[in-house]
Amino acid sequence: MLSPNHHQVHGKGRQIYRSTEMFAEVMRGLFHDPSSVRILDAGAGTGLTGEMLQSLGYWNVDALEPVEKFAETCRQRGFYQRILNQPVGMDKPVDVPDDTYDAVCVVGAFGPGAIPTSAIPEFVRIVKPGGYILNCMREEYLRTVDNFRDKLVPLLQEMEKEGRIQQLEWTIYPGHFNDKDGLRMLYRVL
């Protein structure tokens, strides 16, 4: 199941893990002054995305990571201003006021047993109007993961119809992880 506005990126060689590269490609041109932007790295894991953001000049970055072991690794690596050690997309909202972030970035964390489809409305709540939600995930998960199959795309489309978000990009790219294609989604919060 693909968005009606998708396109593919064709590449020659495959790398082991290209999601951070595809993420950085968008982040390089998203904001004129990265130092004035506040970002949430959702599903921060071991801080790989935080490290990439810092290398691009984004210094005001928070991490949302529900696994304590990973949250502790994020603390030790020092790429984040604040570490939120809690899940997202459950019945309880995350501990963040409305309209806090200029962007929420999810790189490789929309997957089995990780960030669920129900996190999307929460991301919209905490991103400022005019801000962005950027997600890089395995494309196959739209078909193979129960939490996304027949749920993620319809939710995004419904939120677009409601005027809450606007799709800016939907790109399939090779080599997200090994030989698995990736999907890069960029939405503006309205």
UniProtKB/TrEMBL annotation:
Residues 40-134 form the Methyltransferase type domain. CDD domains: AdoMet_MTases (cd02440). It comes from the Eukaryota. Pfam families: Methyltransf_11. InterPro entries: Methyltransf_11 (IPR013216), SAM-dependent_MTases_sf (IPR029063). GO terms for molecular function: S-adenosylmethionine-dependent methyltransferase activity. This is Williams-Beuren syndrome chromosomal region 27 protein. It comes from Plakobranchus ocellatus.
